[in-house]
Amino acid sequence: MQAIQIVELGKPLQARDVPLPEPGPHEIRIKIEAAGICHSDAHYRAGTASVARLPITPGHEIAGRVDKLGADVTRLAVGDRVALHYLVTCGTCDYCGRGLEQFCRHGQMLGKHLDGGYAEYVVAPAHNAIAIAAEVSSPAAAIMMCSSSTAFHALRQARMQPGDRVAIFGAGGLGMSAVQLARACGAAEVFAVDIDRRKLGAAARYGAIPVDPADGAPDRQLRAATHGEGVEVALEFAGLPVTQQQATAALAVHGRVALAGISRQPFAVDSFATVINQEAEIIGVSDHLRSELVTLMDFARRGLLDLESVIADRLPLDADEINRRLDALAGFHGFTRSVIVA
Prior knowledge:
The chain has 342 residues and is of the alpha/beta class. Helices cover 29% and strands 25% of the residues. The protein has two domains: 2-137 and 308-341, Medium-chain alcohol dehydrogenases, catalytic domain (Quinone Oxidoreductase, Chain A, domain 1), CATH 3.90.180.10; 149-284, 3-Layer(aba) Sandwich (Rossmann fold), CATH 3.40.50. It has ten helices and 17 strands. The strands form four sheets. Strands 3, 4, 5, 8, 9, 16 and 17 form a seven-stranded mixed β-sheet that branches. Strands 12-11-10-13-14-15 form a six-stranded parallel β-sheet, sandwiched between helices. It has a two-stranded antiparallel sheet with strand order 1-2. Helix 3 (138-157) crosses helix 9.
């Protein structure tokens, strides 16, 4: 089968012929219909985030149809439409037992430790399969597995409550899901912060109040828009020290900032003014839980989460096309989400 792989760090992905994978016990093989292209994949290609081995097939946003069942798989059938939870966990360690599966002591990730979705087929544990609702397309289900789930987990980590004011820094794929989810969960106001006016326009169509840094420091704009108080919840998806600092500075008393954007660089915090004096919290966001994917699928089925318009373009399984999308993401020019479709 064909796969688009990272062969050498810092170099473009390459198209390669690889053996068709066979499912083992408790596993399934998926004929891939859609695979999302995530900013993390650009980090893996560049080597700024590590992969377990080379060559490896990236892609952790995967949806398709069950093609073959491994031994002892009984709850699924060939032809079932499923999306894949990308965290392959043991289910028995102390973290798994505490419901913190993203920290599984033996955990692996599709597209990082195990071959992922930039291919024609992929193998994964049957437990990782999430049934796709009839109302949801495969491309929408694929991006739900990462961008929407990370956004939802960030809102949960930040303990968003109905009536909270929410500021979202970075209005790309994660941010667009976050806008919709915050509104669905009862936010009083949702602000979207981005330097790209196209993204701000898209966020506004989902009901967000756009905040353009060209008009002044976002934290000051947010305080002005909230009568000097700030926001109860800030979500940072850009992974830039400047936006992490701005998100923290925008918090109200007892505000919570959830950091989900990947960055290795420190950011400055006025610990007295923005944290101590506000009793504010800075919270990390790592991946998501399988149970959250089930909730999101139900949101999409009920029309509370629209992912079709978040998908900027659909492209074939072609190395040149995929590399161009990764180049754009690496330069922070990617617009919402691109999806590889069969």
